[in-house]
């Protein structure tokens, strides 16, 4: 990433740190960050939650999509200090023990991925669609809603099918046991 | 990013005080433009004053026959607000076209106006609807607010608090988004209603196309005042040399797109009426 790869000693001396406390995947996290730290850098570099990916780093591709206070955001376009006091949900926080989240399971069932790079963002974006549009999503809605999540492998067909099925499965409630 | 200090004041007065106390301070609203700008080192504010914890900036209400939208109302809030959808459906629809869902969960009305990106959507709505922008200091007519590319009349320690949109008439916004960024390659907001003395008025505001940022298209307004139809716009053309020319499209292409978007907006209104 452009910011973390940049090292300039004069600027390092100027850097300002701030203590923040937030909840990540249900667990409290208290840490101190350089205020320039992006939320995605906090997750990946400090908390080792590398399931959140950095694709474009310009908030276009959606690979870094996570939830903050229940809503999908692009973690490359949010400062960690802005999430102070908030609740963050990443792809690592979805499964319960051995049971995948229904949206995850739908992606597996419908093969809504090839290389998998965009998948965490797709799943969290799909869950945000359910929050706003309910459990019965039509194809047109899902395709429109995916305007901020880019996949270069699949042509989207199976992603759309997975999100429609996952939205319905979320209505059923309990997570589906993963096939191990 | 260049180094900065971060503040999260809990009142508007504190936010204004922080902006006044630090020479190179900048307000942070939703950050969907500012953070990208910081990452590219195109801005170097010494202090960021985050407005997220300032209460009262998010409210959406009807007051004295006007729709009043708080500066920190996010695009998602405006798009989904039953109040906006009922009173100014074209504004709700416009908000739902900005960026993508994750961007709309963060980006704000006030941030968009203060930034005045030449391809932003809200400036077109403010001009076409003759909105009034209320800051901590004064009320500014939209016609006086936007002064050029990324330029407004805002002073360094002036914060947009809310925007007042007059109700009445009907409007529509048609946009041709850039397929990657979702910014407008051309976006046209058309409004038709009654003026101060009851005369019929048409306003046409174009964003995404003009080299000087958002502008009113006077010829289109005159043509539509005489004959409110897409056909009335057919003979008109914007000067290609005044349009933005970049890797995404030539000036001539944008001039053409603006005409198409204007006709789409008019057709939608004629169809609804």
UniProtKB/TrEMBL annotation, chain A:
SUPFAM superfamilies in alphabetical order: 2Fe-2S ferredoxin-like, CO dehydrogenase ISP C-domain like
Keyword Metal-binding attached: yes
Annotated Pfam families: Fer2, Fer2_2
Transmembrane segments: none
Keyword vocabulary terms for this entry: 2Fe-2S, Iron, Iron-sulfur, Metal-binding, Oxidoreductase
GO molecular function list: 2 iron, 2 sulfur cluster binding; metal ion binding; oxidoreductase activity
Domain of life: Bacteria
CDD domains according to UniProt: fer2
Domain 2Fe-2S ferredoxin-type: 18-94
The name this protein goes by in its record: 2Fe-2S ferredoxin-type domain-containing protein
Organism (species): Ancylobacter dichloromethanicus
TrEMBL record, chain B:
Molecular function terms from GO: FAD binding; oxidoreductase activity
Highest rank taxon of the organism: Bacteria
Domain FAD-binding PCMH-type: 1-170
Pfam families: FAD_binding_5 (PF00941)
InterPro entries: CO_DH_flav_C, CO_DH_flav_C_dom_sf, Diverse_Substr_Oxidored, FAD-bd_PCMH, FAD-bd_PCMH-like_sf, FAD-bd_PCMH_sub1, FAD-bd_PCMH_sub2, Mopterin_DH_FAD-bd
Keywords: FAD, Flavoprotein, Oxidoreductase
Organism: Ancylobacter dichloromethanicus
Name this polypeptide is given: Carbon monoxide dehydrogenase
Tagged with keyword Acetylation: no
